Amino acid sequence: MTLHDIPALDARLNATATVFLTAGYAFIRRRRIAAHRASMLAAFAASVAFLACYLTYHLQTAPTRFGGTGLIRPVYFALLISHVLLALVIVPLILVTLTLALRGRYDRHRAWARWTFPLWYYVSVTGVLVYLFLYQWWPAAVP
Q: What is the mean pLDDT of residues 11-27?
């Protein structure tokens, strides 16, 4: 694996987190607590792996330029800005929500999860979209 391969790996890790988040939500709705816990811990692991890869990549490379022109530019930048801002917010939310669950404080966990889950889901999905915008759909002619 080279540094060049990390953005695609990041997208896969975000997609994996999204799948586990979806499964975790479905499990808790069916009161399958053990399966919910396993899914959410797997989503957390995928997100931690993503963050490690993301930081490794961006500490060693120049920023990637968006190659789209016209009306797609404001769409991309609105998506990117919301993704980045919520990615900053979601880290402490995930840590608090996970800690509450692991300590058995389920009422408080549930209250925090009502905010954490949709934001975490949004960040995971938009992470994949940002990758597609940058590297698949409208790659910059000059990196």
A: 98
**93-to-49, 87, 109, 114, 139 alpha-carbon distances in Å:** 17, 10, 11, 11, 32
Distance CA 70, CA 55 (A): 30
Half-sphere exposure of 14 (CA within 13 A, CB side): 24
Q: Given CA atoms 53, 55, 59, 61 in this order, what sign does their dihedral have?
A: positive
Q: Where are the domains of the chain?
A: 3-137
User: What does pTM read for this prediction?
Assistant: 0.93
Beta-ladder partners of 66: 139
Write out pLDDT tens, residues 2-14: 989 999 999 999 9
Contacts of residue 139, Cβ cutoff 8 Å, sequence gap at least 6: 67
Burial class from Cβ neighbours inside 10 Å (0-12, 13-18, 19+) for residue 17 reads buried
100 near 108, Cβ under 8 Å? yes
Tell me the two tokens of residue 118.
């949709």
Q: Give tens-digit pLDDT for 91-115.
A: 999 999 999 999 999 999 999 999 9
